[in-house]
Amino acid sequence: MLKDITIGQYYQTDSVIHRLDPRVKLLGTLLYIIALFTVNNFAGYLFVAVFLAIIIRLSNVPFRYMIRGMKTILFLLLLTVVFNLFLTPGEVVFSVWKLTITKEGILFAVKMAFRLTFLLIGCSVMTLTTTPNQLTDGLEKSLSPLKKIHVPVHEISMMMSIALRFIPILMEETDKIMKAQIARGADFESKNIMKKIKSLIPLLVPLFISAFRRANDLAMAMEARCYHGGEGRTKMKPLRYQKRDGIAYVVLFAFLICCIGFRIAGRFLHGGLFI
């Protein structure tokens, strides 16, 4: 189960998406999220799906590896779909006891499932094709104008980088602790909720101790190297835009405009894919 978590992991390969400037990928992810919440009909979701498929193909990241992260939010996805299915008022399709399924609820639940799935996969493209160092540099460079109003941009970027680096480390540590506890007779597969909660205690306690120990070691290492924030620091690989980055910006804004067009078209065309 822990191996299915792909958040914060980097898939090393050579592709057009990997070579893009991290600022392009950060802004691209933001525009993608805006576009995803802009479309509200099946024609728009189909267009997003085609665009996402092209990006995944260009990234050279195996699709099976990318959708592994979906298993970790499957419960949240199902919960969201069920709530929208039963709590959306409208034309009744099926009713039993106090549970009512409406036509509007079915449509909204399906759209919400598409939206959450595309959102997770789209964000995974950024993390899988960008190293934590590149993300930090890109975020710091993008937010650099905020330094004028005394926003600690470098510190925020550094915290994000450390958090991303610690996710796979903590997952690996959790896996080791689970295997050690299972060897001692711990049962993590019990269907009894109370037993499952109790079995988490011998897992969480050593995990927290390990996390605090690692954080303390990291702080001591940074102090030993006289780390004092971003003032006066230079970059080994300064970020510079290339021609491909300009093309990527044009494609991203064109994608957003098309998504807005699908939303506008849905207001005038009813039925079929424009529901």
Question: Nutshell version of this structure?
Answer:
The protein is 67% helix and 3% strand. The protein starts with 15 loop residues before the first helix and ends in a 7-residue tail after the last helix. It has 275 residues and is mainly alpha-helical.
Identify the overall geometry.
flat
Mean pLDDT metric: 82
Instruction: Identify low-pLDDT runs.
Output: none
| SSE order | HHHHHEEHHHHH
Q: Whole-Å distance between the termini?
A: 37 Å
The SS-based structural class is mainly alpha
Q: How many distinct helices?
A: 10
In helices, the fraction of residues equals 55-70%
Described by strand count, sense and barrel closure, the largest sheet is:
2 strands, antiparallel
Explain what you see.
The protein is 67% helix and 3% strand. With 275 residues, it is mainly alpha-helical. The chain has two domains: 1-130 and 240-275, no CATH class; 153-233, no CATH class. It starts with 15 loop residues before the first helix and ends in a 7-residue tail after the last helix.
Blueprint of the fold:
Elements: H1 16-19, H2 22-38, H3 42-59, H4 63-66, H5 74-87, E1 92-96, E2 99-102, H6 103-129, H7 132-142, H8 153-183, H9 193-224, H10 243-268
Antiparallel strand pairs: 1-2
Helix pairs in contact: 2-6, 2-7, 2-10, 3-6, 3-10, 5-6, 7-8, 8-9
